[in-house]
Write a sequence for this structure.
């Protein structure tokens, strides 16, 4: 499965050249990670690895992770998850990145081997929009 994901992610960096799109993608993955109200290091590591695959190190992960997680946690706390997903959807135009997002979101949700109901709801929204 990991080899298959690596094949999927290879080449995304070529298409996802705008930091705007990658920031939106990072926010989506942070939303999946924050959905169960428990930020695990394994999930952060998975998002870092995905980000590196997408941007080949051009994207300063640490600079953007904090704001992405904050935005995701705020959306969960204020029950505006759908609005955040709408905003993310409007900022991602790369077809390759869009296709990769659902697999990436599933990977992040499955890192701890337990998908919470909140994560499942977000994954369903991601599947409809990006899958």
């Amino acid at each position: 499965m990991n080899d298959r994901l690596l094949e999927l992610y290879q080449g995304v960096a070529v298409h996802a050249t705008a930091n705007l799109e990658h920031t939106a993608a990072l926010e989506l993955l942070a939303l999946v990670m924050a959905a169960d109200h428990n930020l695990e290091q394994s999930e952060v590591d998975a998002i870092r690895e995905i980000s590196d695959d997408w941007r080949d190190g051009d994207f300063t992960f640490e600079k953007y992770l904090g704001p992405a997680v904050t935005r995701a946690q705020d959306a969960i706390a204020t029950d505006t998850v759908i609005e955040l997903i709408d905003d993310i959807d409007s900022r991602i135009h790369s077809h390759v990145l869009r296709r990769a997002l659902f697999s990436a979101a599933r990977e992040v949700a499955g890192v701890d081997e337990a998908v919470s109901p909140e994560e499942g709801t977000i994954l369903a929204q991601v599947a409809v929009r990006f899958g």
About this structure: The chain has one domain: 2-130. Helices lie at 2-9, 12-15, 19-34, 41-55, 61-77, 81-91, 95-110, 117-130. The chain is about 75% helix and 0% strand. The chain has a mean pLDDT of 80.
